[in-house]
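Fill in residues.
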């Protein structure tokens, strides 16, 4: 796995705790790729590659999440605020989710927690 970007110790521990392969890539854009990221029941696949854009992180903010393959709900309900994009040559589905970044408090580890919450929250929508 590529480690083209340096992450902090807390971030590496959080990623390693997932128990799945991950890598960082610097080109063409700075991204974290978490392979075999587990998804809650109710999506079209049990796991996907999760990408997180690390434009200015650290110390700058992170938002959004990107999934490959694109996610859909097995109950046929739409997932809002998504778009198709590419990371390198691979297609990804962008989840446009934003929050107030707390400089000095939020990290990649807290962002991963938010992503897991977004995935679960999707099924509380009607």
């Amino acid at each position: 796995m590529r480690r083209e970007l340096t992450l902090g110790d807390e971030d590496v521990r959080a990623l390693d705790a997932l128990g799945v392969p991950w890598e960082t890539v610097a080109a063409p854009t700075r991204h974290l790729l978490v392979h075999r990221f587990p998804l809650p029941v109710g999506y079209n696949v049990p796991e996907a590659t999760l990408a997180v854009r690390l434009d200015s992180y650290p110390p700058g903010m992170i938002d959004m999440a990107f999934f490959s393959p694109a996610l859909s709900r097995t109950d046929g309900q739409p997932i809002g605020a998504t778009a198709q994009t590419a990371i390198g040559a691979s297609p990804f589905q962008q989840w446009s989710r934003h929050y107030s970044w707390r400089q000095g408090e939020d990290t990649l580890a807290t962002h991963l927690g938010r992503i897991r919450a977004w995935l679960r929250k999707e099924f509380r929508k009607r």
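The longest strand covers residues 31-38.
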